[in-house]
Amino acid sequence: MTLHADAAHPDLVSVGVPTHWYNLAAELDQPIPPHLHPGTKEPVGPDDLAALFPSGLIAQEVSTEPYIEIPEVVRDIYSMWRPAPLIRARRFEQALNTGAHIYVKYEGVSPVGSHKTNSAVAQAYYNSVDGVRRLTTETGAGQWGSALSFAGAQFGLEVEVWQVRASYESKPYRGHLIRTYGGTVHSSPSNLTESGRAILAAHPDTTGSLGMAVSEAVEVAAANADTRYALGSVLNHVVLHQSVIGLEAVAQLAAVEPDGADVVFGCAGGGSNLAGLAFPFLREKIHGRSNPKVIAAEPAACPSITQGEYRYDHGDVAGLTPLLKMHTLGMDFVPDPIHAGGLRYHGMAPALSHTVELGLVEGIAVGQHDAFSAGVLFARTQGIVPAPESTHAIAAAAAHVADDPNEQVVVIGLSGHGQLDLPAYAEFLDGNF
Amino acid sequence: MTLHADAAHPDLVSVGVPTHWYNLAAELDQPIPPHLHPGTKEPVGPDDLAALFPSGLIAQEVSTEPYIEIPEVVRDIYSMWRPAPLIRARRFEQALNTGAHIYVKYEGVSPVGSHKTNSAVAQAYYNSVDGVRRLTTETGAGQWGSALSFAGAQFGLEVEVWQVRASYESKPYRGHLIRTYGGTVHSSPSNLTESGRAILAAHPDTTGSLGMAVSEAVEVAAANADTRYALGSVLNHVVLHQSVIGLEAVAQLAAVEPDGADVVFGCAGGGSNLAGLAFPFLREKIHGRSNPKVIAAEPAACPSITQGEYRYDHGDVAGLTPLLKMHTLGMDFVPDPIHAGGLRYHGMAPALSHTVELGLVEGIAVGQHDAFSAGVLFARTQGIVPAPESTHAIAAAAAHVADDPNEQVVVIGLSGHGQLDLPAYAEFLDGNF
């Protein structure tokens, strides 16, 4: 497969690992509002970001090119599990009594079991190019932390992860996974950082939040010249890397459904999973080749699109990050400790928020019980136990098509498997939520 | 791909889901010694087995056909994850400083994360054809129990699993997985059966064994007309079903290595994983198309091939099963509770034992520390965290090729992933073994 750097061509050929990432923003009439410096409130420049990110990622953060070539070594690592399968979920269709053709794009085949590796490998690569020795990051359920730990091992980088306490305590397996890849993991808030100590002093019993964990990781990166910070979602360069999901899915779907997708569902926490899947489908829409609806399924406990405000806000709880124009519940919002730890983020990627404002994407909030009901049905019919995050997209799609004979083509982003989240399934089966 | 029912043809074409299972025994000059009735010591007939197994599986147990067609519905379910990938492990090769070309046949892509689904789906199908309502089985680490639970869900069968206590207590996630698919799981020995109660009375603190769990599951199946028993390894029909692993691997390898494999490594507990991978490679050897060595990597704690006797023995601890001619440590052997729960079985598949006697397969015992060392190296280079069972094959292969410039072609059976075994990795990283 060759993905030409030419947005006028549909790239609907047989599927391999994409050669380029796709940057939807470059094809929109209105640009994404810039990130602002937290002090000056002026748009941040490359120099402002250099303390946190390597040059290659900073360039991608503000790129106006629609296609950016994937470095050979990154593509080589991708090829260890990519292209990820697009699976027709016929048994799930039968159980839903629907005429819809349901396809799941399954990212659980990656080494760590989720889509997070797509950006982790790219970020580790660009950091290694700049001579960085250590990466710090936050993680919720642990998908991102384990992905970065794996990626760091590929490029000889140390990886240090602050994991939200609620997940650190209830899901120890992903901490083990981080360590198996050679990384280290701390419960957040920790007493290793000023941010963490301040939060613990004020709220010693906090269950933690992604915003708190971001503050800790950013603080350590900013204070050490050989250390940079890696963010698992939200930012434009992360959304860019995840576009391999949708690029593959568009091509895979074209081989079996010539008219393309009618509706695309993905779960949205920070937004990169959904944007990665959906933006190549929106490319098809923009270029008039198909007309898909895109639905962002977010948790009812943390509904930034459906309940948040669209305004500038910090990405972390301590206000260390740039101000991002996004749908936000407020930087100090602490959601309930739902099992979908990866969806417990107060904001939504500026790139995705922008497409919501343009009417290209709409949000829907899904309750945890409904999400797991759909997840169990999916497991029993298709075998794959979905990540708790992914169950939100499955539930939204199931509600959309159940008992409807309409032969619409539905694509669901199955962002990862839930084998390390099985205690959550056990609690659901025990009737605890 | 079409796998012709013609042993004279190499089937080295592009890879899809095999259409037939392969039965090596039908191509050997000496037949596998028959199973014997535990009372009469005469070869068992179909009637003797009918209380435990459905007719389709009994026919396969004694089949003399080299190829048996895979039923359409079974093949359809296989296609949800098959063909499983054959991955060139270049980063692992580099770390080993070897000239060998190392390929791993990765069964972890199946819904439950292991090869066990290959036989589980087939067994559930043949039971459903005979009108069976419920299946009972044993499981060690839980790979087989969860596979059968998944398979039961596909055919509307209840599944009841007795899991070896050591694994039930140390690895609760696979019990959750069994329940997620709709099955039920008990710690074995349990007080639900006569066998279990007798063992508990004599050894209340036992860590359990596969032999004990077999006795419990067999007892319940034999006592209930609507219930049959399903065994996850050892028997000829299980070995047959697992041949899809090797059939795919031979064809996949032929596309990149025209001379085929030089050495094939697989872990061996009950033997079906290794036999499933290796027997199609032995077909190539028998027909003079290549000359692979086959190495069975077994745990030093349960070394049935390298330390056991080749004689008739029971498959379970209570003596309820037929007598099987196999390498055995004795039906009452209780291995240490090593993390590779799936390798804690006292005997070895008669079909595999037979090929050992014929000089087609040789055994090697691997210690747990060496196995996990190799597993961690594999995870850090290739991303995939191997199942503890699979680490034994990886360790044996690594020892065989390390620092050797010889460009030999090595195939390793990666029977499953170890994401549900991560506490074992944590213990290893903590230096506990």
UniProtKB/TrEMBL annotation, chains A, B:
UniProt cross-references to Pfam families, sorted A to Z: PALP
Pathway: Amino-acid biosynthesis; L-tryptophan biosynthesis; L-tryptophan from chorismate: step 5/5
Cofactor: pyridoxal 5'-phosphate
SUPFAM superfamilies, alphabetized: Tryptophan synthase beta subunit-like PLP-dependent enzymes (SSF53686)
Entry annotated with the keyword Translocase: no
Matches recorded under InterPro entries: Trp_synth_b-like, Trp_synth_b_CS, Trp_synth_beta/beta-like, TrpB-like_PALP, TrpB-like_PALP_sf
Alphabetical keyword list: Amino-acid biosynthesis, Aromatic amino acid biosynthesis, Lyase, Pyridoxal phosphate, Tryptophan biosynthesis
Catalytic activity as recorded in UniProt: (1S,2R)-1-C-(indol-3-yl)glycerol 3-phosphate + L-serine = D-glyceraldehyde 3-phosphate + L-tryptophan + H2O
EC code: 4.2.1.20
Annotated ranges, domain Tryptophan synthase beta chain-like PALP: 81-416
Subunit description: Tetramer of two alpha and two beta chains.
Task performed by this protein: The beta subunit is responsible for the synthesis of L-tryptophan from indole and L-serine.
Family membership noted in the UniProt record: Belongs to the TrpB family.
Annotated protein name in UniProt: tryptophan synthase
Organism: Mycolicibacterium nivoides
